[in-house]
Design a protein that fits this description.
The complex is a heterodimer of chains A (about 150) and B (about 500). By secondary structure, chain A is α+β, with helices and mostly antiparallel strands. Chain A contains 3 helices and 4 strands. Chain A has a 4-stranded antiparallel β-sheet. In chain A, a hairpin with a 3-residue loop joins β3 and β4. Chain B folds into 4 domains: about 130 residues, Rossmann fold (3-Layer(aba) Sandwich), CATH 3.40.50.2300; about 170 residues, 3-Layer(aba) Sandwich (Rossmann fold); about 80 residues, Helicase, Ruva Protein, domain 3 (Orthogonal Bundle), CATH 1.10.8.60; about 80 residues. Chain B is built from 19 helices and 20 strands. The longest helix of chain B is centred in the N-terminal third of the chain and has 31 residues. The chains are: A alpha+beta (about 150), B alpha/beta (about 500). The interface between A and B is medium-sized, with 27 and 25 residues.
């Protein structure tokens, strides 16, 4: 196997981890939607007062927002990664510092656009997204550190 | 009728709020814990028929929660909710004793399944709860929190716990290792108004000084080389709850000073921190040391001792509550047989006699480990004496260490020790015991029977372990001549009964 291909494989493994996390959060968000919609549905059926419905409708709506951000971000990430892989501008980074963190780099002049597309996704799944010149750097952080679920 | 209680353990508020609304509408009394540790604290404090636990949670995850529930034998039925798409974790959860599992996302049909599962799990819980109640009624008060025992001594302990728990007084628990000091601390926490708060146990002897200090008080970012993150210590994390400091007399002196300061000012400062952080903590501590000695040798500061020992609680060693040995042994047997899937139903007569005559220097923990090992090793449905005996006594011939006989011991005492030793060494074989000591099998039986009935004779015990009747100059006693061909028999000192029984 050539060196380039090893790099590709490692880079794709990092992408896989990001997608796994996004999938997990997406399932959580959809659970949030489903559960809260169910409260609204069953309470509406029993003609409960509106005040007993609205907080749940609001929470469901908010979770739809989270799910949307996750799926939009995921689509943007996948298309950017596929494009970079095709163009040969995808790299597995070697992170400096004490811990060996998984780092993924996408080169190219679209860096700013990519960052704005996947920034929100990153914040939801403990992946830091930053731009350095013509480079997007994705760092897969330890889980459960940055996002607050509420 | 009382509404059945369900606990939801999940760190995702959008799910817990919705789910609790659904379950409340279904008629359940619902509580929420935001992580596995909080769930454990709540389950230790009050009974929940069913727990819905997310597999992935901070601190203690779903699987660890299941394990801990098993280990502490906390009665509840656990339904695992998993966001992982893999079946592995679900299978593992079932293996760890989960009632069932449901996969996320919790769509309408999954929710319906969950709603159908809960009453079934509750029914299972209720049936088992009834059994537990029935058996405990038969025996009087046998359990208190996670403590087991129906002896006078243990009831005394329960009474003290009951009395001190509601206050916020510090309690210093004395007891040999293996007597259940942490369980007492947990019971005090669970019966207190802090029961909903966290319970944090730290072993002061197990940790090096720097780590112990860090564990207790936490540190700020950059407090020392390599501290890239800030970390709250036990005092902060247990805010509103209880800290249990085990082996407190082993705590290094300068940490004792800091601890004293924290107790007095009700605030702490992290390592490298400037800010005083207010904390609301109840402190329970324990030691297996002779406290007067620890104080006179300056291992424990006097001022700290007075702070910690507002109430002192003495936990009796197992040999002083022989009445509980049978109860504990049976309970461990049932638990481990179930955990290991072994069809073991009890102990045979010789095993019982051995269990009841051994002094259990390692206390309840030793008994527990011995029963666990016996269950694992056993073949057949009854545990035999050979299965339950500690390995160092596990010989078929003579014992290596001598029996010691105190000056002033009676012939009856000495004979009793010899019989016991021989009895243990033959794995409870009356006939062979009789041959070894040169008595009739009937006399051996009578001797063992009198031991088990608590008629231990008139004089103080010869190899007294706790009552101070230790021999100044132990005399070795050769056995009777029956086995003289093998040379003088020196019997070891282990399973000698040392005190008249209290029952």
């Amino acid at each position: 196997m050539t060196e380039a291909r090893v790099t590709d494989k490692e880079a794709l493994e990092a992408v896989g981890e990001i997608i796994r996390r996004a999938g997990h959060e997406l399932r959580n968000a959809l659970s949030g939607v489903a559960v809260n919609v169910e409260v609204v549905r069953s309470r509406a059926e029993r003609q409960s007062p509106v005040t007993e419905l609205t907080p749940f409708a609001e929470r469901a709506r908010q979770q739809v927002g989270v799910a949307t951000a996750l799926s939009d971000g995921l689509l943007a990430l996948v298309s950017s990664v596929l494009r970079a892989a095709a163009e040969g501008t995808l790299r597995k980074g070697s992170a400096r510092g004490a811990k060996s963190q998984t780092e993924l780099m996408i080169y190219g002049d679209r860096a700013a656009a990519i960052v704005s597309d996947i920034e929100r996704l990153g914040s939801l799944i403990d992946v830091s997204v930053e731009q350095r010149g013509e480079r997007v750097i994705l760092k897969v952080l330890p889980e459960g550190k940055s996002h607050s679920k509420d | 009728m009382k509404r059945p209680k369900v606990l939801i353990a999940d760190d995702d508020r959008s799910i817990t709020e919705g789910l609790s609304a659904i379950l409340r509408d279904e008629g359940y009394d619902v509580a929420v814990a935001v992580d596995g540790q909080k769930a454990l604290d709540q389950l230790g404090a009050e009974a929940f028929g069913v727990v819905l636990a997310d597999l992935k949670m901070p601190k203690v995850d779903g699987l660890a929660l299941l394990k801990e529930l098993q280990q502490r034998a906390i009665p509840t039925e656990c339904i695992i909710v998993t966001g992982q798409a893999t079946v592995d974790s679900a299978v593992q959860a079932m293996r760890e004793g989960a009632y069932d599992y449901v996969e996320k996302p919790l769509t309408a049909d999954k929710l319906n399944r969950l709603k159908a599962l809960i009453p079934k799990a509750l029914e299972k819980f209720n049936v088992q709860q009834k059994n537990r109640e029935l058996s405990s009624k038969l025996e009087g008060l046998t359990h208190y929190g996670e403590l087991t025992g129906q002896s006078e001594e243990m009831r005394g302990v329960y009474q003290i716990i009951e009395a001190v728990a509601p206050s916020s007084a510090s309690v210093l628990i004395f007891g040999e290792s293996g007597t259940g000091k942490e369980l007492v601390a947990r019971a005090i926490h669970a019966k207190s108004e802090r029961a909903k708060g966290p319970f944090f146990a730290l072993n002061c002897a197990a940790l090096p000084k720097d780590i112990l200090e860090n564990e207790l008080f936490g540190h700020e970012k950059g407090a020392f080389t390599g501290s890239v993150n800030e970390k709250p210590g036990a005092f902060e994390m247990a805010d509103g709850g209880t800290i249990f400091l085990d082996e407190v007399a082993e705590m290094p002196p300068d940490i004792q000073v800091k601890l004293l300061r924290a107790i007095e000012s009700r605030s702490i400062r992290r390592l490298g921190g400037k800010k005083e952080i207010d904390v609301d903590i109840r402190i329970l501590a324990a030691t297996n040391r002779d406290i007067q000695k620890a104080l006179s040798e300056n291992d424990l500061r006097d001022d700290l001792y007075y702070r910690l020992a507002v109430v002192e609680l003495f936990l009796p060693p197992l040999r002083e509550r022989l009445g509980d040995v049978k109860l504990l042994a049976n309970e461990f047997l049932t638990r481990f047989a179930e955990q290991n899937g072994k069809p073991v139903s009890g102990f045979d007569d010789a095993a019982w006699e051995w269990i009841l005559s051994y002094t259990w220097p390692g206390n309840v923990r030793e008994l527990k480990n011995a029963v666990e090992r016996a269950v694992i090793m056993s073949r057949g449905d009854k545990i035999k004496a050979a299965d339950i005996m500690p390995r160092h006594l596990h010989r078929t011939g003579e014992f290596a260490t001598p029996i010691t006989v105190a000056p002033g011991a009676t012939l009856a005492d000495t004979r009793r020790q010899l019989v016991l030793r021989a009895f243990a060494s033959t794995n409870g074989d009356y006939a062979r015991t009789a041959t070894i000591v040169g008595m009739s099998p009937a006399d051996v039986r009578a001797e063992i029977a009198s031991l088990l009935n608590g008629k231990t004779g008139e004089s103080p015990a010869p190899s007294g372990t706790s009552n101070g009747a230790r021999a100044a100059r132990p005399a070795e006693v050769p056995s009777s001549g029956a086995k003289a061909s093998k040379g003088p028999v020196k019997a070891s000192a282990a399973p000698a009964k040392s005190k008249p029984k209290k029952r």
